[in-house]
Amino acid sequence: MDALTLLQTRQSDPRLISPGPTEEQLSIIQRAAIKVPDHGCIAPWRFIVVEGEARHKLGKIYHQAAIEELQDDRVIERAKELPLRAPMVIIAIADVKENPKVPRIEQVQSAGCAVLAMQQAAFAQGLGGIWRTGYFAQSPAVKHALGCKSEDEIVGYLYIGTPEVDIKKPIRHKPDTFFEKL
C-alpha cells in the first residue's frame, strides 16, 4: 500500500480476530513506532506487547484495579474480558523524562504519534487495529501494575488483529470544515 493511500484510507476496526501479526509484521510495526517525531532524541516511550495467555494477565490487572478503585459493577464485570477483544494488544506508555528542552506534553504527543504509526503499519500490512483509551488508561492501579512512574501516561492500548468484517467506513469529515487560512 502506498503512503498516500494509507494516510487517506486508514480506519479503526473494533472487531478483530486471529490471526494477529506475524513476527515479521510485528517487527515492522515496532520499527514504525520508533520513527516518530522525538524532540531531543530522548525516546519518551515504552511499549508492552500482550498476546496469547498474557491477555488474561492484563485482564486480571484491569479487574483488580476496578475493584480497588471502586468502579461500578459493569466495569468490574467486563474488566477481565477487555484484552481478549483482539489477538494482540500493544500498551503504549509515554515514559516521561525530565528534560529542560522537551516539555512533558511533547513527550506524551510523541508516544501518541507512535500509536498512530503502529496502527498505520498494521493497516498497511492488511491487519486491522483500534486505539483504545478510557478508564484503564487513566487508572492509577493499572499504571502502577505496569511499572509506570507517576509522571508517565498510558497513551493507549492498540488492539491488533484481522478485521472480522471488511467494511470500508465512509468519510466522516470534510477538510474544509477544519482548515482555514490566516
Walk me through the structure:
The protein has seven helices and five strands; from the N terminus they run αβαβααβαβααβ. The model has no long low-confidence stretch (mean pLDDT 95).
Quick summary:
With 182 residues, the chain is of the alpha+beta class. It is built from 7 helices and 5 strands; from the N terminus they run H-E-H-E-H-H-E-H-E-H-H-E. Helices cover 39% and strands 18% of the residues.
Descriptive tags:
alpha+beta; globular; five-stranded antiparallel beta sheet; 182 residues
Helix content: 25-40%
The chain-level mean pLDDT equals: 95
Unreliably modeled segments: none
- Rg estimate, integer Å: 17 Å
Q: Span between N and C termini? A: 35 Å
SSE class:
alpha+beta
The best one-word shape is globular
Largest sheet: 5 strands, antiparallel
The tally of strands reads 5
- State the helix count: 7
- Give me the strand/helix succession: HEHEHHEHEHHE
Query: What fraction of residues sit in β-strands?
Result: 15-25%
